[in-house]
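Record 1 of the preview.
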Amino acid sequence: MNSPYRYWEEAFARNIGFLTLAEQERLHRAAVALPGLGGVGGAHLVTLARTGIGRFHLADFDRFEAANVNRQHGARVSTFGRPKLDVMRQELLAINPYAQVRSFPEGVNPENIDAFLEDVDVLVDSIDFFSLELRRLLFRRAREKGIPAITAGPIGFGTALLYFAPDRGMTFDEYFDLHDGMSMEAMLIAFFVGLAPRAAQKSYTLPGSISMSDRRGPSLAAGCQMCAAAAAAEVLRILLQKPGLRPAPDYCQYDPFARKFYQGRLRFGNRGPLQRLKRRLIQAKIGGSADYLREPRPLAPPAHSPLCREISAETRDYLLQAALRAPSGDNCQPWRFAARGNTIRLLLDPAADTSFFNVAQSASWISCGAAAENLVLAAGRCGLAARVDMSTAARAGLDIALAPTAAAEDPLQRFVWERHTNRTRYDGRPLAPGTREQIEAAAARHGARLLLLTDKPQIRAAARLVSTADLIRSSHRELHEHLMRMIRFTSQEALAKRDGFPLKNLEAGPAGEWLLRHTRPWPVMAVLNHLGLGKMISKISYQGMCSASAIGLLKISGCAPSDLIQGGRALERVWLTAASLGVDFQPMTAITLFRQRWLLEGKQAFSPAHRRLLQALWPAYERLFQVEDDRESHVMLFRIGHGRPVACRTLRKPLTDFITSDASLASPLPAASPDAPHAAPLIRIAS
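->
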């Protein structure tokens, strides 16, 4: 078709009926400015182009990459590395070859902003959420030029829509209460709170996923599409002078996932008392002083080249960072590392955990096994394999030798960085079909056996045993004082020490946190135990166990360090598999570690009162968990199920704190030959 009118008549025929022919013609002549072509900008462009808008001013200086795929219209493998402006201009002309485009490949800046807004009918905000100074400049200049402006922000699955008229209502800065001199973090929080006053997305937004200080937040394609639909409707309302325009301080929000729609008016914008309160709360929640703590996931280095005889320092550090993400007793992190060439030695640090629970360093050996499993999994991401030899007894630690491989990485590697403890109350719903089988198979990978209890009577029986063990724990002075030493009562203390438990991680709630703060001295705890506090703690433990979908006990034959290491590797696979299936996990280790001390040191290791409780507990424990041999190690008792997102996670010390020298470390192993790329995994236990 060589006539734009003939093309438009056919291409946009299905618009007629909701629009008149004259209105469609008006859209062909209209000009819309889009100052970004990413998540919302690309969706805006395509939606407006298919609606029939005929002229566009497009600006973007960025290029497409893999991180854009989840939400950006133009992001696909074939466009990686290409300028977004070029790709989206091509998309536009593929939809409407007669569209007129004015391009700004350098983006919008103070020097070209007037040219960008010249002869524009509507400005549709499409720049990155965190580019607030540019956004303020655009809205201010648009109002000066008499140009209507829209901002439609993707909030979760939904959108928030605001319209700023050039001749009435509040200005952008007035509505959001922004002014020069504010910190960028304060301005971003004000923008966030004003954009979505009713926070429909709150019910499903994960804690810690938004950070104003780090300029990080999630975004979904569904939200971007909702933005495009809402903005397109508002653009047509403006261009066609339809009724219903409600400039700021009116707002509109819709979230299809939450199934909520809000429309209202913030009479004073963000200056209203409720909005001010929200801003202060958000500042405490997601600002720089937030209590939510989480380790950033390190970037994986490029895959190791088979032509290189030694792994790079970057690769080595990545592997060690993965090892550090393993669980350990009270997050004491009982590891040290030495490296030379292609060999990494993982050493147990006996001074890291001297608690009553860690009898004969049993818990620490299990943690070393979990750390080794993480390292082996991370090696696959780097194009490396580890060969495993468990034939010698572990005394000094593990030697992990690495060689190139062409084998695909284990999918569990991705969850090394996501695995965490969830101490919230679970909802009790059954495990999804196939979940049990996958978790049991993960345990068998390293020769362990998993006993999984899913019947409610069995879960209640296990809950009674665990609650008794927790009664002992709360009335044991050494354990109480050790726990209090490992709780980090402020975010500042947690960030400084980077071990133990941040207070929020314990999920105790405001009352529980108050109690923990005031029972730090043992004399106070002892008095409250006499008044029944221990029984209350035991009851809470019982209720938490009963809320689980299943109770698991992981066993392994033997109790030598090498057995415990294998048990730790199996434990980590079980935990990572649960994480990959969306199942929450909490260790309940008191009873298994009491059993280990009872077997190794006898009943005299406990006070007479605790001895009597345990003596009565063991027969029921052995029946329920099918104990057949006292020589088997019970690696961990745990509960799994579905809880709410955790309020906080634990931290790890810097990698440099764990690096040590070891003169006995073996020479570097030779790299695998190119004709034998599929090396089997090697962890050699050091003698």
